[in-house]
Predict the structure.
Amino acid sequence: MNKDLVLREYLAIERTQLANETTLLAYIRTGLYFLVAGSTLGQFFDTAFWKIAGTPLIIIGLLIMAAGAIRYRTVRRAITRSKHNIGNATDSFIREARDGK
């Protein structure tokens, strides 16, 4: 077994985990933007339109954060599964990694 290859695969998985966490934080940040916009527009502009328009923005913000959490967990499971194959790059592993199953 080539130790350089194993180290490279391990470091690639670590980079992928960090990228996954960064993506989760981006989902949360975007969701918070929508939450803040929805909650402040109704307070800042004292019209019925902005009070009604604020509710969908809050819902969209919550949905974005939920989608980010679901995506994070899905990718984290795939990363964990791929850790078991470090140093064992067989044809079946390569097909599984490429197909995402």
